[in-house]
Design a protein that fits this description.
434 Repressor (Amino-terminal Domain), globular, two-stranded antiparallel sheet
Length: 120
């Protein structure tokens, strides 16, 4: 199994340069390049959230699991993801991360994990 990072394809579909994306998410150009080239050893959840907000996509659009026997279908899967992206509103901007509260698509998941179970 391989996890393919499709950041480059999604970024290009949004007509953003690496430099502009780095500015939008408050990271260095080198960090964006490392993620795009698959050189990052890990990608923190808050970074994925910022990328998703800036690119108006879901984490599943950026990280795609490719089973070993489907390696030849990688480009087809990536193309399907790119075609399925919602149009981006150019007026949207990435919110500042001054708050300690989780934001974006990951917030509901984190809230469900931190809520205490209800007693029966």
């Amino acid at each position: 199994m391989t996890v393919k990072i499709t950041l480059k394809q999604v970024r290009q579909a949004r007509n953003l340069s690496q430099n502009k994306l780095a500015q939008l998410i408050g990271m260095t150009l080198q960090t964006v390049q490392r993620i795009e080239y698959g050189e990052a050893k890990s990608i923190p959840l808050d970074t994925l959230d910022k990328l998703c907000e800036a690119l108006n996509c879901q984490t599943g659009d950026l990280l795609v699991r490719i089973p070993d026997d489907d390696e030849q279908k990688t480009e087809s899967i990536i193309e399907q993801i790119i075609q399925g992206l919602k149009p981006i509103d150019n007026q949207e901007k990435v919110s500042s991360s001054n708050s300690s509260e989780p934001k974006g698509y990951i917030q509901p998941c984190l809230q469900s994990l931190t809520q205490s179970p209800k007693s029966a």
